[in-house]
From TrEMBL:
Pfam families: Hydrolase. The lineage of its organism: Bacteria, Bacillati, Actinomycetota, Actinomycetes, Kitasatosporales. InterPro entries: HAD-like_sf (IPR036412), HAD-SF_hydro_IA (IPR006439), HAD_sf (IPR023214), PGP-like_dom2 (IPR023198). NCBIfam families: HAD-SF-IA-v3. This is HAD family hydrolase. It comes from Streptomyces fimbriatus.
Length: 231
């Protein structure tokens, strides 16, 4: 039995395990340019961090007056993203170390992401994380994306875990809110530094205000050990 008792760990993918936001930004920029919206900026992209691709595109249509349908835009953006994801996704080194540490301990793990199943699969396969993270839930598979708790609750169900025994790792405010709503503890690693003071992050059991610069596998593991519930 692991020293972490009945713990299961659920990872957000984008911005948490991997630095995929540059790829999402570039895919979004190219897609919008194709549909007549030039100069989509990184600052504009940041408002969509942590929100599912479908919800992002729904907002784009209203914000930019796009005539194309959601399904068409979704297909174009996903195609562009997959081209980038397969070849140029970077795993945060300390996150890879953390996943390997938990795997050595036999801790059940899952990924719960707002990305499409195809995008999640491409990133995990392209980075080798699929060797450790075989339980995967996309927001496309549940009724509501984050900040609703659906993806995390489904991940717990597939792991056979009680939500109260799950710890979520998240980089975005909607995900932290979703973890809280699911009744799970959260390690929050804000991707957008300016959002560290967001009320949603105040619910986290461990908030690393410095984001990935502050995260280490050993420190996170030590926190889990201190707060683990006995089996």
């Amino acid at each position: 039995m692991s020293t972490l008792g009945t713990l299961s760990v659920i990872f957000d993918l984008d911005g948490t395990l991997v630095d995929s936001e540059p790829n999402y930004y570039e895919a979004g920029r190219r897609t919008l340019a194709e549909y007549g919206v030039p100069d989509f900026s990184w600052a504009e992209h940041e408002r969509y961090v942590g929100i599912s691709t479908r919800e992002t595109i729904t907002d784009w249509r209203e914000r930019y007056g796009l005539r194309a349908g959601v399904e068409e835009l979704l297909a174009v953006k996903n195609r562009r993203y997959l081209e980038l994801a397969r070849t140029s996704t970077r795993v945060y080194p300390e996150m890879r170390a953390f996943v390997e540490l938990l795997a050595d301990e036999g801790v059940p793990m899952a990924v719960a992401s707002g990305s499409s199943p195809e995008a999640i699969g491409a990133v995990l396969a392209g980075t080798g994380l699929d060797a450790y993270l075989r339980t995967v839930v996309s927001a496309d598979e549940v009724a509501h994306g984050k900040p609703a708790p659906d993806v995390f609750l489904e991940a717990a169900r597939r792991l056979g875990a009680d939500p109260g025994d799950c710890v979520v790792l998240e980089d975005a405010a909607p995900g932290a809110l979703a973890a809280h709503a699911a009744g799970m503890r959260c390690i929050a690693i804000p991707y957008v530094a300016a959002q560290a003071d967001a009320a949603e992050f105040a619910t986290a059991g461990l908030l690393l205000r410095g984001g990935q610069r502050e995260f280490t596998a050993r420190a996170a593991y030590a926190w889990l050990t201190r707060t683990a519930r006995p089996a």
